[in-house]
Amino acid sequence: MEKDNIRRCYWATTDLYKDYHDNEWGRPVHDDNKLFEMLILEGMQAGLSWLTILNKRQAFREAFDNFDYKKVALYNDAKIEELMNNKNIIRNKLKIKSAITNAQHFMEIQKEFGSFDSFIWSYVNNKTINNHFNSESEIQTSTSISDRISKDLKKRGFKFVGSTIIYAYMQAIGIVNDHVKDCYLSN
């Protein structure tokens, strides 16, 4: 997509998508709070468009205590009911409960590895995978690495972490840079 002589990936078609594309997608994230936020948002996206999630992102932040995983891990039935009544977020009980479960397991990984960052980036030896695809049609929806991460997270009790969700997560947190060659952000 071109605007102001800037070539972007094909999907960056709206202002919200362009902002996300230009400032977040494919950029390495090492902050555990941000890693948790993106993990939950990617899980919330299951079956929906990413634009839907981006449009509700601020409401999610407000509803989920700015994705403070320590607080989310303690959510009880009353909080779940409050979230289910919040018309500004995705009101899927399984997804909401998964955020709580995932927060609890997120902290277990922190205890084991020192940080979630250390755990997740260990799969790529702390180096971004730059794919250099010629076109969007070459971009995968899952890889052997996303398969391994998904399997590991599921074994640890995480929910909504299938391989496709995890590959999108890898793109979102910069483990993978899938900007196509003619995008100005391609490496």
CATH fold title: Endonuclease III, domain 1
State the share of residues found in helices, binned by percent. Answer: 40-55%
**Tally of separate helices:** 9
How far apart are the termini? Answer: 17 Å
**Spatial sequence of strands, sheet with the most strands:** 1-2
The largest pleated sheet is described as:
2 strands, antiparallel
Indicate the structural class. mainly alpha
Over all CA atoms, what is the radius of gyration? 16 Å
In terms of quaternary structure, the protein is single chain
Explain briefly what this protein structure is.
With 187 residues, this protein is mainly alpha-helical. It is built from 9 helices and 4 strands.
Characterize the structure shown.
The protein is mainly alpha-helical and 187 residues long. It has helices spanning 15-23, 32-45, 50-63, 69-72, 77-84, 93-113, 116-121, 144-155, 163-172; strands at residues 2-3, 6-7, 129-130, 176-177. Strands 1-2 form a two-stranded antiparallel sheet. β1 (2-3) and β2 form a beta hairpin.
Summarize the topology:
Elements: E1 2-3, E2 6-7, H1 15-23, H2 32-45, H3 50-63, H4 69-72, H5 77-84, H6 93-113, H7 116-121, E3 129-130, H8 144-155, H9 163-172, E4 176-177
Helix pairs in contact: 2-3, 2-6, 2-9, 8-9
